[in-house]
Design a protein that fits this description.
The chain has about 70 residues and is of the alpha+beta class. It is built from one helix and five strands, in the order βββββα. The chain is globular, with a radius of gyration of 11 Å. The two termini are about 15 Å apart.
């Protein structure tokens, strides 16, 4: 899995996947949906994630590993 960011939007892609999971800020919460990786997104490290998103993304990655990637 690879992590990307563009401003307040974060993307997680699987190896060789054209689409990404996208988290974007909606008020105080994070909204998750499928999206095309933005051309302006840059690679990011896990440590760069906002604290409010770190636990959510780690839980998502653990579920994906256990259940397989969901399209």
């Amino acid at each position: 899995m690879e992590l990307y960011t563009e401003g307040e939007t974060w993307y997680l892609t699987g190896e060789g996947e054209a689409s990404a999971w996208r988290w974007r800020r909606e008020g105080e919460a994070w909204a998750l949906d499928r999206a095309t990786l933005s051309s302006g997104a840059v690679r990011a490290r896990l440590e760069e994630l906002p604290a409010s998103l770190q636990e959510e993304l780690l839980a998502f990655a653990a579920r994906a590993a256990a259940m397989g990637t969901q399209s």
